[in-house]
């Protein structure tokens, strides 16, 4: 068997199937990155350059150079700094419009027709005289100077865990706002607001069918789609391109051994292709 014929057979075996297997999804929709430092983009997300079948509308991300972007239909593009597939969240960072007052920027977001599911957590904005002295509880963030136009007043964001009665009598509620997320790992709701104010980042819940994917991700596997079955599947995703190329090369070298007795049969070739790279041994050097 010639080397060219052996490699052709191997590629044919790798790419020909009678029907879609669960891991075929990641052959069509392999994980991608926007630059070396960007978050890994995989199901349920896809890059806008990938086939639409990699997932539905609303889950498209795009690359601007090395930056990963999420578009909210009514609010524009936001930088994606992290995706947590185990917890079903995505972390976005506001742009220049958030730089002066990230909390105000977040409050202006419109999630209509987006995949984002904001939490229903309620916070109150409370105004207190600037010159009072008091011990600020952990669930109160402030003073938030960018929300305040009154030089004699300080504005605080107060979690619904805290009642107005726990604040000084001279403080008054200004307004409520709903839907602030607080998913940052190990972070309370007040901590999440504080993080937003310092970094312009906010973590949002995003995945549908997350209970199934959570169980899959917890096992160290990836969630994907089986097109033929039209269902979410859980698959040890295969190795990267370099590993696949090395596996092909090793198997091809076995197939062209000068001694026919050293050449593997077709069933053995298939087993070698389906096995781990680490389980393959290098064939003898025919020119040694």
TrEMBL record:
UniProt enzyme class: transferase
Signal peptide: 1-19
Record has Metal-binding as a keyword: yes
Record-level Gene Ontology MF annotations: kinase activity; polysaccharide binding; ubiquitin protein ligase activity; zinc ion binding
A Pfam entry, by short name: GUB_WAK_bind
Residue intervals of the Wall-associated receptor kinase galacturonan-binding domain: 29-92
Reactions catalysed, as given in the entry: S-ubiquitinyl-[E2 ubiquitin-conjugating enzyme]-L-cysteine + [acceptor protein]-L-lysine = [E2 ubiquitin-conjugating enzyme]-L-cysteine + N(6)-ubiquitinyl-[acceptor protein]-L-lysine
Pathway where this protein functions: Protein modification; protein ubiquitination
Domain of life of the source: Eukaryota
EC number(s) stated in the UniProt entry for this protein: 2.3.2.27
Subcellular location: Membrane
Keyword line: Kinase, Membrane, Metal-binding, Receptor, Signal, Transferase, Transmembrane, Transmembrane helix, Ubl conjugation pathway, Zinc, Zinc-finger
One Gene Ontology CC term in the entry: membrane
Membrane topology: Single-pass membrane protein
UniProt similarity note: Belongs to the RING-type zinc finger family. ATL subfamily.
Protein name: RING-type E3 ubiquitin transferase
